[in-house]
Fold each of these.
Amino acid sequence: MAQAEKSQTAWTQLLCSALATILDCWDSDGAQQELDEVSLLTAITVFIFSTSPEVTTIECLQKRCIEKFNFALESKDPVVQLKCYQLLFSIFQCPNRAVSHPYIHSLASLIVSKLQETEKTKPETVAELQVVQEGIKVVAALIALAKEEHRKCLHHAIWCTDCKKLCW
């Protein structure tokens, strides 16, 4: 039994190291980025769904992963934004709340505010329109995932122009 526990611990440490390496590949200024943002976001998402929560809920790693999605949501590239929304749609629906809720709490209000920006700046290209449509799909999923008693608050927050924090 002790050998199995040692193996499990070593395996978890290896996976944590691999995730940290992926995160290290991402240089925020883009100057030395080895892989494109979409590939890195996809790799992070694969880790989230393929490894145990012991790996992906380690606070320092989880915070860095969320930060990468935050950067992608703020990207000027509609392809990056679109893929980010698609991946977050999956993460938000993860049945393990320890995995999904930190992403929801950290990114939902940004997603709503990005959608509210479209009231001022209408999409000018098909790609920009697809981003808005995907954002709406994510928000609809968030409303469906919210507890019944929070849906009214969430609905109000989405339609309120000065929304700062959502009810979860």
Note: The domain at 2-159 is CATH 1.25.40 (Serine Threonine Protein Phosphatase 5, Tetratricopeptide repeat).
Amino acid sequence: SKGAVIYEGTSEIHTLMQADYALGFREDRPLRCELPAYDPEFWQAEA
């Protein structure tokens, strides 16, 4: 099945991407927009 073939290559792609970051070939772009600050009281409040 195609799903198995697509899944099969995923770990290899992730390994290559991690190597690119480790060797300095790849860098993250700056964020387009900042996320709001984490507010623990808001997230832990009962809904």
Note: The chain has a mean pLDDT of 88.
Amino acid sequence: MPVSIAKNTALPAKNSVARQGYVYATFHALAFAINYYFSTYYLKQYNVKLPFDAQYGGSWRFLTMINLDAQTYYHLFALLVQVYIISTIWENSMVKLKPNQKKKKVPYTEELLWIVDRWYIAVVTLSSIVGVLFWSIFLIDRELIFPAEFADIFPATLNMWYHGGVAIVAWAELGLVPHRASTKWDTIVISTVAVLYIGFTYHAYTVIGSWQYPFLNDLSLTASLGFYFVALLLAYVFGYGSRRIVEHTFHRKLTRASAKAQ
């Protein structure tokens, strides 16, 4: 089944499930293609040279880049999972069952969808932080986070997609593809990513002598670390909000699917 459905819950008919799977697979395929284009092909086609690539840590010092890569490979993985589930469903549908013989379950479905769900919660949280923080600071004073001279080496198209497009795609998935939230595991995943990122960027700061974001260099070390602490709190807030929306969307789609099956 291409959707995460709780046990002992009625499922829609096979054709309906397959159609849903096609919709989800198409969405993931388009999202992966667009993200891959901007993260790889566009940079090579227009010979975009980012000055921080030669520094310690490269683009991985920027949450924007981490988020883009995380979302790109998330959509690729989710697409492969959908293709696997759909193909297995149709393969099983071709098998004639003997009397009293039950259809085989799609193996590893729950495990694969569990990974997809955890990955998605992390992605939508990162995308929300990147989009909200970047544009909030940008509107206050662009020199604090995206100086004017960056425009000469970082095209506006890339800026719009990296800091806006990825967030829109992640938010769109909230209403299109049902996921199941897990307060325990989602909190663990998001907290682990946040702590590793903060630790890595601080280590890069000790090596390079400057922060990756211009406005942090104007702050004291204590204030800079305080900013990351606030960002960590925002990660929790966005993560909690994402889980609530995911749970609401999942139950709503589950109710519709159950009604169609009756």
Note: The chain has one domain: 14-261.
